[in-house]
Design brief:
322 residues; mainly alpha; 3% strand
Length: 322
Amino acid sequence: MENQTEVSEFILMGLTNLFKLYNVLFTVFLLLYLATLVWNGAIIVILLSVPHLHTPMYFFLGNLSCLDIFFSTVTVPNMLAGFLSNLHTISFKSCMVQLHFFHFLGSSEVVLLGIMAYDRYVAICSPLHYTLIMRKEVCFLMATTAWCIGFFHALMHAIVTAHLSFCGSNHIEHFFCDIKPLLKLACDSTYLNLMLLSTVTTCIVMGPFIFILISYLYIITFLLVKVKTQSGWQKAFSTCGSHLTVVALLYVPVLFNYMIPTVGNSSKQDMIITLIYSAITPVLNPLIYTMRNQEIKLTMKKLWRKKQPFFGNGSFGKLLQL
């Protein structure tokens, strides 16, 4: 170890093999990021400004939109900066901070999706007790628990990774600081890191996933036994379908990326998978909920008409009718 120099900064290699497409990629991911901010921000504003949407389901949806904005902000701007520079470096401390926030927000979102499944279960299977069970203080406690679990889970990984010795090469084969690419550069034994990644992260990810499956198993059983009308089924699955789609969009890439915690030569595959749930999924989530949720669509239409009186029901609209 005497002849090796401790690493003080890392070079993010990113998508260096696609150098000729940097301008195109920069434009595409910039538009995706702006769409993430606008669409998720619009949902948050709508949920805060419309009183009849102050319900548990929309409270958790607002938390999901916040997480999507922050989650995308952790990685995408950093990746965009890499497209504009020939040598994209990041300090050791900044790298650990980015690693922490990425896993903090990702873990929180996973737990929140499990809580949202429970909310749907209570709403469909115990509608008479829904307001009693899902009280404001209970919903706030659930959301706070999701954020806290994510925070301490990420803090564990950040501390353990920061205590590793990094020497020799400082080239990270990724567009941001993630655990698996960093472990490839460590001089120390990474057994503890891989064990935590395998056990704790698996519990954080698979725990809510199993809970979601059980919740929907109970929902489907309840609908088969108690609900006989087609309208009842349609009402139940109008929101459940959106939630299940969001769960699939997040869980499929995450399971591929972290449930096989090896430090091998799969950096390109990891980058592509990470791009899906860090840049693309946050854009799709608000669209999925607004397209399948009639209440949000009607609210957005009403707000749009109020913002455009001149072009809607105002004088210009009357001129068009003439």
